[in-house]
Amino acid sequence: MIKVEGLTKRFTPFQGVFEVNLEVGRGEVLGFIGPNGAGKSTTIRHLMGYLQQDAGHAEIDGHDCWHEPVAAKARLGYLPGEIGFPQGVSARTFLRMQGELRGHTDTRRRDELVDRLRLRLDTPIGKMSKGMKQKLAIIATFMTDPEVVILDEPASGLDPLMQDELIALLVEAKRAGTTILLSSHIFEEVEAVADRISIIRDGRIVSTQTMESVRTALRTALKVTFTEKVSAASFAGFAVEQAGPRTLVFQPRGDTGEIVRALAPHPVADVETERQSFRDYFREAYRGEVA
Questions:
Q1: Of 136, 114, 109, which Cα lies nearest the Cα of 124?
Q2: What's the half-sphere exposure (Cβ side, CA atoms, 13 Å) at 105?
Q3: Which of 110, 196, 204, 245 could cross-link with 143 by S-S, CB 3.0 to 4.6 Å?
């Protein structure tokens, strides 16, 4: 449904996107992650037909995003990273305008989302907080039940409860077969809904992998607490960090038996296993420590 091939847009020799390749199949969710300025929003703007590429192409449902923008966006829901709302109108008026533009007059889905996200429709947009405006944008994105959804930082400005509600909404959309490109720094969103992830850094895709392979790659550490003070230097040859006067964290390199044998002569009080978080994994990916 979404395909980006060899997409290149140079703003300077070192700024832009370079030979970006992405593909999101029908009913699939792709997590699109990377540090600020890596090229996520630039890639998305090409999919929306807002920028013309220097090379390569972008398409949605077989339609070229630059040459056929209307057809490409016919069944699309889009939530931009930077949202500009008309001033002097209420949320109700804005959503009615959006529905009319899309030829969608049935308000049942809209009303369901309004109740779910606790938005007051008669509030003037100019008096809304950032979080309220973000909820309004989410409702506008999903109220027509689009087949393809592109989200650029959808949780921006939402409180934790509304972030959870957004994740639930994304899970439901995925189950309904919606194709989703999700650009997000909220790793819980990506973990909950993505089938695959693509990592972009300095304008280039550096890794694309399934979430299952990411889960397999997460490291498991051993947190060992001793009954007396201990130094990491006592375990030369091991990947170990000092986590406290009586606590060390070991990073196993395969079988943990070697660590257990090395611990045997020492006064160990407790051993805990700690799995690497998705957040830490993605941070390493941002720094270039994950292939």
A1: 136
A2: 0
A3: 110
208: nearest Cα among 36, 28, 41, 82? 28
* All domains in the chain, ordered by first residue: 2-212 (3.40.50.300), 219-275 (3.30.70)
Please answer whether residues 201 and 286 qualify as being in contact, where contact means their C-beta atoms are separated by less than 8 angstroms: yes
Alpha-carbon distance of 20 to 51, in angstroms, equals 15
Distances (CA, A) of 45 to 42, 185, 266: 5, 18, 58
**Cα-based distances in Å from 211 to 21, 144, 148, 276, 290:** 18, 29, 20, 14, 14
- In this structure, the strands spanning 2-12 and 15-24 are antiparallel
> Which two tokens mark 234?
């006592």
Averaged confidence pLDDT in the chain = 93
Report CA-CA distances (Å) from 191 to 204, 238, 290.
22, 31, 17
- Whether residue 164 is predicted with pLDDT greater than 60 in this model: the reply is yes
Whether the predicted pLDDT of 291 surpasses 70: no
Digit-coded pLDDT (tens) for 198-224: 999 999 999 999 999 988 888 889 999
The pTM (predicted TM-score) of the whole model is 0.85
> What are the residues whose beta carbons fall under 8 Å from the beta carbon of 113, sequence distance 6 or more?
138, 139, 142, 143, 169
Q: How far apart are CA 159 and CA 162, in angstroms?
A: 5
Strand partners, 242: 248
Count the neighbouring beta carbons within 10 Å of the beta carbon of residue 263: 18
Residue type, 192: A
Q: Which two tokens stand for residue 117?
A: 């996200």
- How many other CB atoms are found less than 10 A from the CB of residue 270? 11
pLDDT at 283: 78
